[in-house]
Design brief:
The complex is a heterodimer.
Chain A: E1 3-14, E2 18-29, E3 33-37, H1 44-52, E4 59-62, E5 65-68, E6 71-72, H2 78-84, E7 89-92, H3 106-118, H4 122-135, H5 141-145, H6 154-165, E8 172-176, H7 184-201, E9 204-209, H8 212-218, E10 221-226, E11 229-235, H9 236-241, H10 246-253, E12 303-307, E13 310-313, H11 320-323
Helix pairs in contact in A: 3-4, 3-6, 4-6
Chain B: H1 2-29, H2 33-38, H3 44-53, H4 60-72, H5 86-121, H6 126-140, H7 143-157, H8 173-199, H9 202-209, H10 214-251, H11 257-266, H12 270-298
Helix pairs in contact in B: 1-12, 5-6, 5-8, 5-10, 5-12, 6-8, 7-8, 8-10, 9-10, 10-11, 10-12, 11-12
The chains are: A alpha/beta, B mainly alpha.
Family (chain A): Belongs to the ABC transporter superfamily.
Pfam families (chain A): ABC_tran, oligo_HPY
GO molecular function, one term (chain A): ATP binding
Chain lengths: ~325, ~300
């Protein structure tokens, strides 16, 4: 399988002081849903924005390699990057209530993506918009096109955002916590919708979330992020069955996973908070919260291979017994 | 939308009626009108004749309803000083004030919108700080002082513009600049803060993620939202400008409504004073109404109100 998006050693810093992303590496394969998971503040969203080249002012990115469908994203000019955004890479956000411009109709906001990237008439773009709104489960799309964002509920707005992202038939959809602001039933609908789109349109999805429940339901592969690093990467089933990094284990102990947690044992928690990492930090960023930490954790940590497509960043050897196929 | 307009108009009529009452009462509060019209040399008998001739001997409410009743049909009575009907006087002077106001507002918008946008896009750079400094200085400069400086430099030293009078369009340039300066600081700062807020918003992040051009992001998506408070304030500023035009028209001897108001106050020509106050108030009300309608067009969330 060839990777659609390949990120190696991505570094993002703001004003040279805060290192938001410190050498994150992951691959999104064609037609798969890849989850970036981690606590808030671990650099998930910044990673996504760095891929889109949409970092806030003062944000600096560098990477050993960042390729999208064979194109080196790092060497693209602003003009070339603008042509990819919304066209071949689309993005949706956490806040459906504020992500649409309050001053323009849904139709006008959807149509402009299409006329911008693919040309054609506004009427044709509106037809496509209506079709996609039907596709994402919005009833009476004709009426919705003429409405303004404030006339729509949060769930509807997120559907509009998804439909708008699909206008140009993108290869990759980056979804940054797309369901966090929605209530649980709407959340489930949106996740089903995304899964359906992936299946039917062959869309690749980079889904950013802090919710392991979502990961378990939709992800093919998972990258666990901690303090700006990807500390563990694995296929979803394997990650849930045999997590190797102490942080991943900690995360999984915090949520009830069927078959992993006994009914009468309390759920776990990870003590402390994500530390702020300055430049020149060495060693494992999790060591201050880790039960297995010793003095070797201040040195450079090796990336260990646990299985095919499963690796993690820790001094500890893999637990081979756990990794045996069940 | 129509309901909104109807409500605003009804509200405007109420405000106009209030202003009429206040204008009427305030002129009466300034002293015995019969005495001041009759002049310092008049005897008690002369004053009584004047009082009777002008109907000032009638009870206050009779005078008030007589005046409002006629004012409704556009009859504001006779000026005591100009020997002409008040309606005629205002009709002759109004185009000058309106021209001045429009020139002032256009200049103000031409300067403050680009400056505000530029400062917002270059937030916290030397460009932004220069713009802020400029607005602060602009705020602090009194308009009569600026008027005199312009007269000296452009009028006397360079001799490119006439320093007073109403004859040609050149006569409106300097007063227009001075008038614009009363609105530029507020409008610039409002545009700047509105643009900064808009550019940091989620919908601009969406617009960027859609791959739209920078021009479209700034001028369509951000400016449309930043313009909403600017429109409201611009209308209020134009109202202030009409008030400020009393000073500016006097300094530049532009014979507009403001100048007329100043003359009639000095001469106790109270039918003119009342009418000028009312006309300026109606203007102000009209502008606010226009701003409300424009805002409803700009911001769909206001349309249901």
């Amino acid at each position: 399988m060839s990777a659609l998006l390949e990120v190696e050693e991505l570094q993002v810093s703001f004003g040279g002081r805060t290192a938001a992303v410190r050498g994150a590496s992951f691959r999104v394969e064609k037609g798969e849903t890849h989850c970036l998971v981690g606590e808030s503040g671990c650099g998930k969203s910044v990673t996504a924005l760095a891929v889109m080249s949409l970092l806030a002012r003062g944000g600096q990115r560098s990477a050993k390699r960042m390729r999208f469908a064979g194109t080196d994203l790092m060497s693209l000019s602003d003009r070339e990057m603008v042509r990819l955004r919304g066209n071949r890479i689309a993005m949706i956000f956490q806040e459906p209530m504020t992500s649409l411009n309050p001053a323009f109709t849904i139709g006008s906001q959807m149509a402009e993506v299409m006329t911008r990237h693919k040309g054609g008439t506004r009427a044709a773009a509106l037809d496509r918009a209506a079709e996609l709104m039907g596709r994402v489960g919005i009833t009476a799309p004709g009426m919705r096109l003429g409405q303004f964002p404030h006339q729509l509920s949060g769930g509807l707005r997120q559907r509009v955002m998804i439909a708008m992202a699909l206008m140009c038939d993108p290869e990759l959809l980056i979804a940054d916590e797309p369901t966090t602001a929605l209530d649980v039933t709407v959340q489930a609908q949106i996740l089903r919708l995304l899964a359906g789109l992936k299946r039917e349109l062959g869309l690749s999805i980079l889904l950013i979330t802090h919710d392991l429940g979502i990961v378990a339901r939709v992800a093919d592969h998972v990258s666990v992020m901690y303090a700006g690093e990807v500390v563990e990467r694995a296929p979803t089933a394997e990650l849930f069955r045999a997590p190797q990094h102490p942080y991943t284990r900690g995360l999984l102990s915090c949520v009830p996973v069927p078959g992993r947690v006994q009914r009468d044992r309390p759920l776990g928690s990870i003590p402390g908070v994500v530390p702020a990492i300055g430049p020149g930090f060495a060693g494992c960023a999790f060591r201050s919260r880790c039960a297995h930490a010793d003095e070797t954790c201040t040195r450079t940590i090796p990336r260990r291979r646990a299985a095919n497509a499963h690796d993690y960043l820790c001094r500890l050897e893999p637990d081979w017994a756990e990794l045996q196929p069940a | 939308m129509l309901r909104l307009i109807a409500r605003r108009i009804a509200l405007g009529v109420l405000v106009a009626l209030t202003v009429m009452t206040l204008a009427f009462l305030l002129t009466r509060l300034s002293g015995d009108l019969a005495v001041s019209i009759a002049g310092p040399q008049a005897t008690q008998a002369d004053v009584e004749i004047v009082r009777k001739a002008y109907g000032l001997d009638r009870p206050l409410y009779v005078q008030f309803f007589a005046w409002t009743g006629r004012a409704m049909v556009g009859d504001f009575g006779q000026s005591y000083f100009f020997k002409d009907s008040v309606a005629n006087l205002i009709q002759k002077r109004l185009p000058i004030t309106v021209t001045l106001g429009l020139v002032g507002l256009s200049l103000a918008l031409i300067v403050s919108l680009p400056l505000g946008i530029l400062a917002a896009l270059r937030e916290n750079t030397w460009i932004d700080r220069s713009v802020t400094l400029f607005t602060m200085v602009g705020q602090a400069v009194p308009s009569f002082w600026l008027a005199l400086i312009l007269m000296i430099v452009l009028g006397l030293q360079l001799g490119i513009l006439p320093i007073s009078g109403t004859g040609t369009w050149q006569h409106f340039v300097m007063p227009g600049i001075v008038l614009a300066f009363t609105a530029i600081p507020a409008l610039t700062r409002l545009t700047r803060s509105g643009m900064i807020e808009a550019m940091a918003s989620d919908y601009i992040r969406t617009a960027r993620a859609k791959g739209l051009s920078r021009a479209r992001i700034i001028f369509k998506h951000a400016l449309r939202n930043a313009a909403i408070p600017v429109v409201s304030i611009a209308a209020v500023q134009l109202g202030f400008m009409l008030g400020g035009s009393i000073v500016i028209e006097t300094v530049f001897a532009l014979h507009g409504v403001g100048y007329l108001g100043w003359e009639s106050i000095a001469k106790n020509d109270f039918p003119v004073v009342q009418a000028v106050v009312l006309v300026l108030a109606v203007f102000y009300i009209g502008l606010t109404l226009l701003a409300d309608i424009l805002n409803a067009l700009l911001d769909p969330r206001l349309r249901t109100g």
